[in-house]
Amino acid sequence: MKTDVQIAQEATLNPIAAVAEKLGITGEKLELYGNHKAKVSLSVLKENQAKPDGKLVLVTAINPTPAGEGKTTTNVGLSMALNKIGKKTITTLREPSLGPCFGVKGGAAGGGYAQVIPMEDINLHFTGDFHAITSAHSLLAALLDNHLHQGNALQIDLNRIVWRRVVDMNDRALRNITVGQGSKANGVERETGFDITVASEIMAILCLASSLTDLKDRLSRMIVAYDVAGEAVTAKDLEATGAMALLLKDAIKPNLVQTLENTPAFIHGGPFANIAHGCNSVLATKTALKLADYVVTEAGFGADLGAEKFFNIKCRYAELKPNAVVIVATVRALKMNGGIEKTKLSEENVTAVKIGSANLVQHLENLKKFKVPVVVAINKFPTDTEAEFEAIRQACSSEAVNVVLSDVFSQGGEGGVELANEVVKLCEMGPSQFEPLYSLELPLEEKIETIAREIYRADGVIFTPEAKNQLEEIVTLGFDHLPVCMAKTQYSFSDDAALLGAPKDFKIHVKEVRLSAGAGFVVAITGSIMTMPGLPKVPAANGMDITEDGEIIGLS
Amino acid sequence: MKTDVQIAQEATLNPIAAVAEKLGITGEKLELYGNHKAKVSLSVLKENQAKPDGKLVLVTAINPTPAGEGKTTTNVGLSMALNKIGKKTITTLREPSLGPCFGVKGGAAGGGYAQVIPMEDINLHFTGDFHAITSAHSLLAALLDNHLHQGNALQIDLNRIVWRRVVDMNDRALRNITVGQGSKANGVERETGFDITVASEIMAILCLASSLTDLKDRLSRMIVAYDVAGEAVTAKDLEATGAMALLLKDAIKPNLVQTLENTPAFIHGGPFANIAHGCNSVLATKTALKLADYVVTEAGFGADLGAEKFFNIKCRYAELKPNAVVIVATVRALKMNGGIEKTKLSEENVTAVKIGSANLVQHLENLKKFKVPVVVAINKFPTDTEAEFEAIRQACSSEAVNVVLSDVFSQGGEGGVELANEVVKLCEMGPSQFEPLYSLELPLEEKIETIAREIYRADGVIFTPEAKNQLEEIVTLGFDHLPVCMAKTQYSFSDDAALLGAPKDFKIHVKEVRLSAGAGFVVAITGSIMTMPGLPKVPAANGMDITEDGEIIGLS
């Protein structure tokens, strides 16, 4: 089979203006970025406010393993398949981060015959959204340090500055730094650091904002530091809101591209799935729902993090009513969850599949708690056997959930027709019965405990004294009504990445609690969460090139 | 009179595709960024290689003062006026830097009825070129620190790392920093700092590159550090060239916008005019020369720096043959050069104009040395008087140069017709006789001494021992054939910003010499050159905003 890049380069792209026109987006409402990328005006959503929403389908997955589950591939393939069976469908995805492209992984735009294109642009600067977020974040940091330099009228406590800097690059040397060194003219000396741009609270805000006004409200509430009296100092206090919003005026508009089969794709926003909620933008999802019968969307990591946050944070804030969930698994990843090494995944092993399916089953049980119907999509590999498929079906039978094979990687939309039909069946069962898992009225500890108990199946939650103090302060500041955002390893239901499958008899350890007052959630951090990745011994960048004729090498 | 923003917002813009079509740029050769910005494919230059070049006109100025000379305004207005008198003209300008917009100054897109539009986009992210340069620079920094972290196989001397980081923001706290702090996993601890993006050598390279291949050659030669044996370590040694070029694949393409009168404008690249050469890109200028009868271009700061570097660096590398020079002055700025305070510039003062004109006359004498004919353009202000104009004419009479009044600020192209006619007259005098000031065969010291003597009129050059050592090392490394790039205050012919007019009896002090091996020049630093600006007590950012309807406030 051809490589992803070969397939992408051989694709026949429609002019993006033609893709947009089919959705009714014309004239000033479309801003072209070359012939195959565009931004869609926020007026499209406003003007269609009265129209009923299409059906919303979430694609999520079992706990990821190095074997991969193909969540984005399935999302893209399912969207193409829905179009194939006559349902006008838009796929909505997150934008990939630039930095990691130069490290271990390549891009993130699906795979095989289920990709979004132009993949090289999507993986590089795309329409500049992440650069705009980096600029807005950098501006606030510069205004903060300038405020200190100019006399610190707000009496900011130098030991309690929480606003760091960001850059969209894997640069471990910037994790912990000291700024303001040298002469007094260089500002106030203090320790701080950089995170990668996707970890910026502004990224989360961009993805949760329902309008430019809401964006500004959220930006203004961001806490950058505390003053010597312990009061929060916000972006508003630094008079930074308007300028940041100005920098984000285009970034807030959803980006339109297409799949290999010309299905429209909104790719917009990409918040981290650990310290943030890991979903594409509310504005992209909502706009898509006004323009299509079906909207397929995704959430980062496995369903324990991605789906949980999609439901409890994104759907709650945006008042979305999801109609169906697709949970993606591969035979290979289930074998790894069943204890098999990566080198032996090509050998048939029905027992390992059975054991590993415990992970899938727990996710199925969990998803029921949100009252949204579910289908399992097995993303096919050539080495899979019928006996292994049968083992998955048997494991899922107790949950009364159908298991469907998906072969969109090698067949495109055609390989996802069975899945599409199942999704339509679920969506046509009646109006969405969706409910979040917990009420916002619950105390923050109890929200965290509810997720730990109901989703992770932990015996309890242990808060460090530091975390307890932080929770108390958040209550004092008046933010106890916010949903929680769990920052946990993606590899396990527990907070120990080594515990695969469906672990039992463990506790969740909350080490630290952070307030994202602008985004509107309280982050509970379990384990050590890396917000600035590093580069490997041999970075992918070393193998990249572009020829005088524009041929791109090494970006996959 | 209306404000710049009002005028800009009332303008009737043509679709940029229509502007491009008039230049013969159609189809795949044009990449739209919205309806009023576009990138032009490098193939346009390649396909028109055989066509003769249009006439090249440089707009430069006297030494700048806080009173302003209106160089960009004159450039834009002259271009519109040339079109008005039937000469197909393209204006070429530098892209403004994002960071300074949030500090003291507003944008940089001309003024009054001589602006390029859309000014708000040009002043903000534009087409993302500066972000791409920041990314490429950041990638190289990350690869360098990663190399140290992974064992430093190249034996880089930690005390001789010259590659810093950049961000397009005025952020003084980042001037001097320590990175790699905390645990060993965070890289190697060392002191470094950030410059503003326009100071990146990659910016200078982008502006001097004649093709993607030339860009890669220059990128590969950039020196990032020296090893323990004193040998240069380059971007090529870090295997960073291809990935950086990939990040710059779109940034290298000239941007097309238009003036208020729909004259095509290439706005592309914006290197610092102190540690770099301060001109728009070679590719934009060369492409424009193939598409128009007249191309008007600019160079940063006054003619002692901007024009000198335009001739000795840009024209030499690009084999450009400029046909005429417009030197811009205002009565107000000449009065300041004549010793008058900023508060008294509105009062007629013929004596001060006479004294200040010594600055203008020295520039005129200097420009003759490059064998390109010159015209003086007086950028009119309502408070100017005829007696003051006459004083300027008399001062210039010894140089046999015409002095023309320009009123493009309040009249647009119509106000520049006299200037346009004079420019055409100069350009039609015959083929360009342009010559650089010095031969590349001269030793580096002598190149610097030639500029100091012939342009600044210094009595001599004093090199610090450090600078002498650096020059010796550059010779040892084999780079003595490069042109020099003077980094000097823009406010005086001397290296003392307080010496206005035409100072005599001074020496130039070269404190430090830096090698920009990729860009292809040796930077001689006199005085203290700031490569990372700070924000003022009340940053312009504080007054910026955007409404839900998209109205922009505070960006001017």
From TrEMBL, chains A, B:
Q: In which pathway does it act?
A: One-carbon metabolism; tetrahydrofolate interconversion
Q: What UniProt keywords are attached to this protein's entry? A: ATP-binding, Ligase, Nucleotide-binding, One-carbon metabolism
Q: Which reaction does it catalyse?
A: (6S)-5,6,7,8-tetrahydrofolate + formate + ATP = (6R)-10-formyltetrahydrofolate + ADP + phosphate
> What Pfam families does the record tag this protein with?
FTHFS
The domain of life for this entry's organism is: Bacteria
Database matches in Gene3D superfamilies: Domain 2, N(10)-formyltetrahydrofolate synthetase, Formyltetrahydrofolate synthetase, domain 3, P-loop containing nucleotide triphosphate hydrolases
Listed GO biological process terms: tetrahydrofolate interconversion
Broadest EC class assigned to this enzyme: ligase
Q: EC no.?
A: 6.3.4.3
Give the binding site residues for ATP. Answer: 65-72
- Molecular function as annotated in GO: ATP binding; formate-tetrahydrofolate ligase activity
Task: Please give the family membership noted in the entry.
Answer: Belongs to the formate--tetrahydrofolate ligase family.
Identify this protein by name: Formate--tetrahydrofolate ligase
The source organism is Acetobacterium bakii
In the record, what lineage is assigned to the organism producing the protein? Bacteria, Bacillati, Bacillota, Clostridia, Eubacteriales
